[in-house]
Amino acid sequence: MRNEQTLMVQDLYACHQKMPVLHGINLRIDPGKVTVIVGPNGCGKSTLLRCMARLHKPSQGVVRIGDDDLWQLRPQLAARRLALLPQAPQAPEGISVGGLVRYGRHPHQGLLQQWSADDERAVRHAMQATDVMSLAERPLEQLSGGQRQRCWLAMVLAQETPLLLLDEPTSMLDLGHQVDVLNRIRLLAAAGRGVVMVLHDLMAAARYADTLVAMRNGRVLASGAARDIVTPELVRQLYEVEADVLAAPGDGAPVVVPVAAHGAVIAARANADSALVA
Questions:
Q1: In this predicted structure, what is the pLDDT of residue 250?
Q2: Alpha carbons 151 and 83: distance in angstroms, whole number
Q3: For the chain, which residues make up each domain, given as ranges?
């Protein structure tokens, strides 16, 4: 049975300047679940996310939320159903954290709609959920990368949509900030939101995803629980890398250990040593 907030991608095709990019993508994103899309650069991950966010018009297929065709909804109504955090968001110069988060309420505003108690509540809850309340008066540009990313996440939370689309939300963050952001995203899903993320880090994706979607050349190669689909063969197909796949101590999440590169280094050193002897 399909929930009215379930996102369905059905037989989706898309092009860039008449060049095919996506080829017959089918996905289902349910509320309360984290779906993570992985794959090599240029495989169509971000294009797929942009098609879901109404930023890239598919050439064929449909994106539905419940029974509604997303592309047939008025923009303001669509923005109340899902929110996108792009890979490199831009903010007005000098904006404060509080000012940024308030932008998330834009879809709920209108010509006659004044800032309301509901708007104030949504902003406050979003800032509390991302632990940026103490930064409200600080200029965004003065914050660290991890702090800024939590502020952007607060902005999309303030939009109060049941679905979140996040394109590389941990890009350029150190390990500690990556874990912090991903843990917060898991808590959002536990509270009932559906989340779709694009990640480059396969091991992080495998640990935090309920459903892992592996793409290459605009097609889905595999989709399912990470423990079921992350294999040496899948890693080879995705990245052309030989790897061992181990189970992490504790939770058993797949850990990918490349082996081909290590072998290549040993061979290169052996060749260099031979050349020196000669």
A1: 82
A2: 15
A3: 1-73+163-234, 91-161
Kindly report, residue by residue over 79-124, the tens digit of the pLDDT. Answer: 899 999 988 888 888 999 999 999 999 888 766 667 788 889 999 9
Helix pair 145-158, 117-129: axis angle to 10 deg: 140
Question: Which residue, among 212, 232, 215, 234, has the nearest Cα to 223 in the 3D structure?
Answer: 212
* Unique residue bearing structure tokens 């059905």: 10
Confidence of residue 261 (pLDDT cuts 50, 70, 90): low
CB crowding 44-62: b at 16 or more within 10 Å, else e: bbbbbbbbbbbebebeebe
Q: Which fold has domain 1-73+163-234?
A: Rossmann fold (3.40.50)
What is the spatial distance between Cα 82 and Cα 75, in angstroms, rounded to a whole number? 11
> For residue 275, what pLDDT is reported?
53
Structure tokens at 70: 């997303």
Residue for token digits 């899902």?
Answer: 82
CB 196 within 8 A of CB 30: no
